[in-house]
Amino acid sequence: MIKAKSEIEQLQPYVAPLEGRRPMLRLDFNENTVGPSPKVVEAIRSLPPNAYATYPEYAGLNEAYASAINVPEQHVEAFNGVDAAIHAIFDVYGQPGSTLLTTAPTFGYYKPCALQQDMLQDEVLYLPDLSFPFETIRARLSDRPRLFFVCNPNNPTGTLLEPRLLLDLARAAPDTLVVVDELYVAFTKKSVLPAALELKNVVVLQSLSKAAGIAALRLGFAIGQPDVVDRLSRVTGPYDINAFAVTAGKAALADLDYVGDYVQQVYAAKAWTIEQLQRLEVRHFAQGGNYILVWPPRPCEQVEQALRERGILVRNMRGKPVIDGSFRLSIGTLEQMQQFMQAFTEVLR
Questions:
Q1: CATH assignment of 38-255, given 3.40.630.10, 3.40.190.10, 3.40.250.10, 3.40.640.10?
Q2: How far apart are alpha carbons 94 and 113 in whole angstroms?
Q3: Cα–Cα distance between 83 and 219 in angstroms, integer?
Q4: How many angstroms separate the CA atoms of 5 and 115, rounded?
């Protein structure tokens, strides 16, 4: 076998347990639990045969997303999911021997992308109360890392920062590309945009996977200075985004009332779930996002397995710093959370 470059030979891939989930109540990956707008489904079903046989066309997609978030179109670039945008950032701006600064725990895909570029990694732990380690991060930024990735709200902790605080960090680190991962912004309404567009060293990542319910089609966006997003687009293939994603994305953006209604359902279900966890005196942490961290009073592995046997999936945080012993609970509709709470209460008994 011809050996890959050394960085790849040593790389452990980011692997998520995705198989066999669909028949179950999926409260493990922060997905939309009801599906996209009926207008999305209808738009895909209405595609003519030649749409399958020809390469996709992208006209209007960036414009539609830019309009939805109220920024100029030249600041927006679509990608085959935010994962592809993350990979492009490392391809363009990662350098061997340079440093990636992140908090920990956080989204697991940043690390393998950095390793592929032979970058050094500087991980700063969240504080025991899961608050953001501002002073340590500010000090590490003075060392001028090449990249600083920050999830807001952070996945998996849910820690939520005010946008102005992130912008202050970016202003204090003009030699660092600050990447603000805002995949859950629909559930928080707290974005560094449009103010971030005044800075040359900030890229914002957003997606239609979560609230709009098209995770299977993979459609994400990078928003930043035009010269930055242009360079990111240079390292992607000419047809990376498939025609179904383009069609679904445009249809979803044309029916934002549906997205807003789903978000309101999640708000209500999250508030109810928090009340129930408080009633049971179960430790939990809930700030931003459509998810909650839960520390069950029994071993987490046992609770996870018992819930699975009842047809409900949650995401075990086994081995993750600061939050080991917890599971991440995605929030669906009120009816779905009532189903979870009934099963969870049975398990605790």
A1: 3.40.640.10
A2: 9
A3: 9
A4: 11
What pTM was estimated for this model as a whole?
A: 0.95
Which tokens is 211 given? 């609230």
Q: Rounded distance, CA 193 to CA 224, Å?
A: 9
User: Which sequence spans correspond to the domains of the chain?
Assistant: 6-34+257-348, 38-255
Two tokens, residue 242: 């498939």
**DSSP state, residue 298:** S
Provide the 10 A C-beta neighbour count for residue 109: 18
Cβ-based burial of 315 (10 A; exposed 0-12, middle 13-18, buried ≥19): buried
Return the closest-CA partner of residue 79 out of 93, 67, 65: 65
Q: Which DSSP letter does residue 237 get? A: -
CATH homologous superfamily for the domain 6-34+257-348: Aspartate Aminotransferase, domain 1 (3.90.1150.10)
Mean pLDDT for back-to-back runs of 10 residues, the chain (349 residues): 79 72 92 97 96 96 98 98 98 97 97 95 98 98 98 98 98 98 97 98 97 97 97 95 98 97 98 98 97 97 97 97 98 98 96
Q: Which SS3 state, helix, strand or coil, does residue 277 take?
A: helix
